[in-house]
Each structure stands twice: as C-alpha cells, then as structure tokens.
Design brief:
Elements lengths: L2 H7 L2 H66 L11 H9 L18
Length: about 120
C-alpha cells in the first residue's frame, strides 16, 4: 500500500484525537512530578513533627519523674516535728459558749428599698 492510500484510510479527526491525548499526557508530566515531590516533602515533615512531639513528651516525663524523686528525698530528710495534741472536747465547747450572738440586725437603720 502506498502512503497516500494509508493516509486516506485514517480519518483526520482520529489522528487529531490521538495527538491531543498524547500532548495532554506529555504536558501533565512536569506537574505530576512537582506534586509527587511536594507530597514526599509533606510526609517527611509530618514524620519529623511527630518525632519532635514524642521527644518533647519524653523529656517532660523525665522532668516530672525527677521532680517527684527530689520532693520525696526532701520529705525524707525533713526533721520530724512532734504533732500538737488535739484540743480537749470541753475546751472547744467552752470557747464556743463564750461567743455572744446579737439578735439585732446590723441593717436595722438601712433605708427601705423602693421597687
């Protein structure tokens, strides 16, 4: 078959459609590679931040543990003071009975409230 006859067998709209699809795929190449690179960088940053948060939590836990141990050590070193004996029950009743309660209202000379 000659080349001229072969060209007449394929319609021009089909060749335009194939050419357009090929150009579209070739044109998307740089954009897709840029998106993939950005996605890889984003995932790497996510892992980095997760590791930073985990390490910060570990440091805080070590600090809290150290504080608790030091407070416990200070409590053991503190000299034991003798506790005062509780007051006798009769002393508490006699102290309460010496308090005088007035039946007069402290607000008896206040002006009346107008509503």
């Amino acid at each position: 078959m000659s080349e001229g006859k072969l060209r007449s067998l394929v319609h021009s709209q089909i060749t335009d459609g194939v050419t357009s699809a090929s150009a579209h795929v070739i044109g998307l190449g740089p954009a897709l590679s840029a998106v993939n690179a950005s996605l890889g960088q984003t995932q790497a940053q996510s892992v980095l931040f997760a590791n930073m948060v985990n390490q910060q939590q570990q440091v805080a836990l070590v600090g809290l543990t150290t504080t608790v141990q030091n407070v416990a050590k200070l409590m053991r070193l503190r000299p034991q003071a003798k506790a005062a004996p509780p007051p006798a029950p009769q002393a508490a009743y006699s102290a309460a009975s010496s308090v005088s309660v007035s039946s007069e209202s402290p607000f008896r000379h206040a002006p009346p409230v107008v509503t």
